[in-house]
């Protein structure tokens, strides 16, 4: 299992490449949806202790919109898109769905945000699937608005049965002059990482 | 002979426990943990001896022959915590407990067994404490909101902070 606790440079590169290709696809999909050009960049692709994951989204208590999808097929795990409140509001503004009180969104707004998450995650997963020649499926998205730490629990619980760390591929989105500042977290089941690395041409000792 | 030592009123400190971790404090320090979703935060305390311990558990039951971070699982984390109290000469029956968390943050069609991990965590904690003979004074389990908790030994109150439903104590 040591491979999960110490990624070497080559494995970090593979993870970053997965992130970049996924982000590229997702940016295209989001550009179409918003009818504006969108840029994305991978800011982190690494192993991350459970405690640090929420910090990347602004701390465990920061309110965020979280979209959660489960990954199935030849790879198991979960995927999150975390949007800070301001970014969620900006997206809703672009979609002409403004107006809500505090953390309470309307049903239609939540549904629209979940759909954005679905499109982005779908593009992301398709990229990984093509790159690694693995057949990967996605569940229907679930959405929640709450503290980042609380929202991430479920994904950590899912991969936490085996590991104390999760693999994090963090992506940021910029749209026009506004920073949408969305964070993608890919939490593959540790056993699926072996599959992913070997499908990407990394066979040594995994 | 201690007449002229510093007054006993000290600045109390908040000890934060991370996810899948545990810690023990003595008063006037407070102990807490942030961002509980499906996780459960369990506080065991002995008010007279001024000791409180907290574990932030993620999953209800450890796999067989598990050797790793014990504070991840309800059963092993509470074994560990009771052991820490027993080192202080405190039996389970002399302790009280308060617990919160175990929410189901997401509903939907994804694998329901995994989405239900919150309620299963809460149930595991309740069962464990009952079997161990620890009095579970109050709980705030379930629902679909995240919680940040903080326990104060001096008042024996567990403060619960939520993003949507405000702050309250149990």
TrEMBL record, chain A:
A Pfam family recorded for this sequence: CheC
Domain of life: Bacteria
Domain CheC-like protein: 11-41, 108-143
Keyword list, A-Z: Chemotaxis, Hydrolase
GO BP term (any one): chemotaxis
InterPro entries named in the record: CheC (IPR007597), CheC-like_sf (IPR028976), CheZ_family_phosphatases (IPR050992)
GO molecular function: hydrolase activity
Keyword Cell membrane: no
Name under which the protein is recorded: Chemotaxis protein CheC
Organism: Alicyclobacillus tolerans
TrEMBL record, chain B:
SUPFAM superfamilies reported for this sequence: CNF1/YfiH-like putative cysteine hydrolases
Keyword annotations from UniProtKB, A to Z: Chemotaxis, Hydrolase
Reactions that this protein is recorded to catalyse: L-glutaminyl-[protein] + H2O = L-glutamyl-[protein] + NH4(+)
GO molecular function: protein-glutamine glutaminase activity
Enzyme class: hydrolase
Keyword hit for Hydrolase: yes
Domain of life: Bacteria
EC number: 3.5.1.44
Protein's job: Probably deamidates glutamine residues to glutamate on methyl-accepting chemotaxis receptors (MCPs), playing an important role in chemotaxis.
HAMAP family in alphabetical order: CheD
Recorded family membership: Belongs to the CheD family.
Protein's name in the database: Probable chemoreceptor glutamine deamidase CheD
Species this chain originates from: Alicyclobacillus tolerans
Classification of source organism: Bacteria, Bacillati, Bacillota, Bacilli, Bacillales
């Amino acid at each position: 299992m040591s491979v999960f606790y110490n990624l070497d440079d080559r494995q970090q590169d593979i993870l970053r490449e997965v992130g970049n290709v996924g982000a590229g696809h997702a940016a295209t999909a989001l550009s179409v949806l918003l009818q504006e050009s969108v840029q994305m960049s991978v800011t982190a692709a690494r192993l991350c202790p459970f405690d640090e994951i929420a910090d990347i989204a602004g701390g465990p208590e920061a309110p965020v919109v979280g979209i959660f999808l489960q990954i199935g097929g030849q790879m198991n795990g979960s995927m999150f898109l975390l949007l800070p409140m301001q970014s969620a509001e900006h997206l809703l503004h672009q979609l002409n769905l403004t107006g809500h009180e505090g953390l309470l969104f309307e049903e239609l707004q939540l549904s629209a945000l979940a759909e954005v998450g679905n499109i982005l995650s779908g593009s992301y997963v398709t990229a990984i699937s093509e790159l690694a020649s693995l057949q990967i499926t996605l569940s229907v998205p679930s959405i929640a608005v709450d503290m980042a730490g609380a929202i991430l629990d479920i994904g950590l619980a899912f991969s936490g049965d085996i590991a104390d760390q999760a693999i994090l591929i963090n992506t940021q989105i910029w749209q026009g002059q506004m920073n949408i500042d969305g964070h993608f977290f890919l939490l593959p089941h540790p056993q699926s990482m072996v599959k992913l690395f070997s499908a990407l041409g990394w066979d040594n000792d995994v | 002979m201690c007449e002229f030592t510093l007054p006993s009123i000290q600045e109390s400190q908040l000890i934060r426990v991370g996810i899948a971790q545990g810690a023990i404090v003595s008063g006037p320090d407070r102990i807490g943990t942030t961002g509980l979703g499906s996780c459960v935060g369990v506080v065991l305390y002995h008010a007279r001896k001024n000791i409180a311990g907290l574990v932030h558990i993620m999953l209800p039951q450890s796999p067989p022959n598990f050797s790793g971070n014990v504070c991840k699982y309800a059963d092993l984390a509470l074994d560990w915590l009771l052991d820490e109290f027993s080192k202080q000469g405190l039996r389970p029956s002399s302790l009280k407990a308060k617990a919160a968390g175990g929410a189901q943050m997401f509903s939907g069609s994804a694998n329901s067994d995994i989405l239900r991990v919150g309620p299963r965590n809460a149930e595991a904690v309740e069962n464990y404490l009952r079997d161990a003979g620890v009095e579970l004074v109050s709980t705030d389990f379930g629902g679909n909101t995240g919680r940040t908790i903080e326990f104060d030994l001096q008042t024996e109150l567990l403060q619960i902070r939520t993003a949507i439903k405000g702050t309250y104590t149990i």
